[in-house]
Design goal:
It contains 21 helices and 33 strands. It is α+β, with helices and mostly antiparallel strands and 733 residues long.
Length: 733
Amino acid sequence: MSSGESLIHGDIKPRNILWFKGNGEIGTLKLADWGEAKAYGSDADRKANTATRNNTTGKFGTRRYEPPEVETGMSIQDSGTTKTGRSRLYDTWSFGCFTLEFIIWILHGTEGLKLFRIDNVGDYSLSDSFYEINQKRLAKVHGVVSHWMDHLERDAICQSGASALGDLLDIVRNGLLVVALPEGGGSIQSQVTTYPRFKLLDLEQAKRTDTEPVMDESSIVGHAPDAEDGPLIHITIASKDEETADGAKYSTVLRRKQRKDSALSAVDLERFRAVELVENLGRIARREQSDSYWYQDLPRCPIPPKFRDRISQISSKIPPGMRGNYDLPYLDPEDWQLRSDNDFAAEMFERLTNAGVLGPSSPIKVTEHLCKKCQEFRRDLWSPFFTIIYETNVLHQNSVSHSCDLCALLWQVCQDYASSAHSSVSFERRDSTLRMSNGRLPVLSLFRDHGKWVLLHGLDIADTVLLDAQSVVNDIQTGFSELSDAGSALHLEILRCWLDHCDHKHWKDPKCKPSRFKKSAAGSIIKLPTRLIDVGTADNSCVRLQDMKDLDGDWIALSYQWGTPPYFSTTRHNMRDMYAGVEVDTLPQTFRDAIKITRALGRRYLWIDSICIIQGPDGDFESEARTMEDVYNGAYCVLAACCAKDQSSGFLLPRMARLQVTLDPQHDNYGAIYVCQRIENFDQHVLHGDLAKRGWVLQEHALARRTIFFTEYQTYWECGHGVRCETMATLAK
């Protein structure tokens, strides 16, 4: 580039590094996909603030390789004001990320790299990035990343100064994966030295005098080589005391004083500018061509244990009295992680099939209308780090013209999440979800088919193919894209599966199921409620109120909204009739639905406050209110009627429909894949739903060991081991 412009690529990642054969034994590596790259400064515009990416339109990189300042922001002084934006050193962090992955791959192969990528539990929380952020919004290098670099530095083949890999790892750790940014965010006005720190300083560098020139990063200009082996980068030398962006002289004497010859601590490190990266890579390339430096054949350390496993091992060796009192890690109360659990899904579908509620169905017809871009989406979606960028005007056009089914779904998502105003939008796969434009929450869910016959495009009915739900792609959840009717045989069997699984897997866990002695959370013996509703069986047309003195048995409790009067309740006036028996058909619909679920779950007793507590001024609410802890804490299960507005509306209601697109997997035994509007939203549907606003619900939810939540979108299950969705997804914090 003869113009002197410098570029921000904005999406440096392994997939964009291309290998071209020739040009020696190794060949040539080239950086591809420059479609989003933008210039950030030139010699003709030296006064422009180029420390941020506010002046570019390349907005979306791959989330895993983005630097921490995309979340924490950075304050840049510009004409007396303060802006928050991304650093120009965005690309150097990304370079460090994929270089570390390269070193891991070189030493430990694909298996080691896979283990590094899936180990995402750090010091503060879950994060797939190379950094993590604490509750004070301060970033640091991810604990897993530091753990692996510590391990690699102990490997004989990775010794700094003794091997090329060791020096490369030194650059990654001390120059690229560094949270702190240089003053000015790496502006072209800032002066930089050829090599301000680290172990690669040679004797010639140490002997330089104070007249040593400094380099201006803006003087690095890439151009085509004049000869076959010519340099790809030219570096011109700036004047000794050239002015900085704020007009102040930045002396090399001061720089040398700050640098000194001693190693800097982690808090002193600043991220490399591009010129420092080039200079130090050049130092490696200029080393003598000896086998001892480039081709070491030494024993290698095994793959390190998982970061959290190592922390547990170390902690267990420290006497309890000597362990530090550390703050709790930061947990975002709205940050629910959608996780895959295909082992449970396989058990569930086998049971549903054996129960006869999930019989053979008509073949699934995959979509036939996909544009060229969405065909690329379908082809690459299986990649664990899948990312794709769309122009929003194209999504809109294809949606209006009905020319592409997937574009129509993506355009609807853009409208739902207020992204239709942007010129472009990115979608990135995180396990079994898609996130949009680096958003924190998923916008689409992905499900694999559970083994139905799939009608692939171009085949006749006789040529349908049975795709195996237990395929090699285990990070996409096997589940339901469409749900059965609430209260149907299939729906009720799913509820029984949840309870039976918890009964058998968690039967010793007091967080899930009361013991035979029914001790409360406070440790006292739980007493049965004074009264319960005896629901009988499905053949009984009546239910009756039952005094539980000298009786025993499990009960189910109902959590619901009373709504507006009139209310159905037990009073002193109708108490005799309630004990004698009441026709189910005369009860409010919400109560009838609760009776149906209780019978389906094989339980005899049901607790509903308006019936089991005598209402009115002469009732026993005052005494019964004191036993609420026992009612919900000791219940076999709690039914939360989240979608019921009152006693009469019911909660086994039709589900809200959602858009979805069915894709041909393009691979044998991968199973058809559904791209669906996201309805796995426990936070909004349950924790912030209408029922949660009722006064008593906080106590009911906190005390319940196991709860089934009935919402207008789907049914959720919660026990002491997490939240499950009717779609088969699993949620956890």
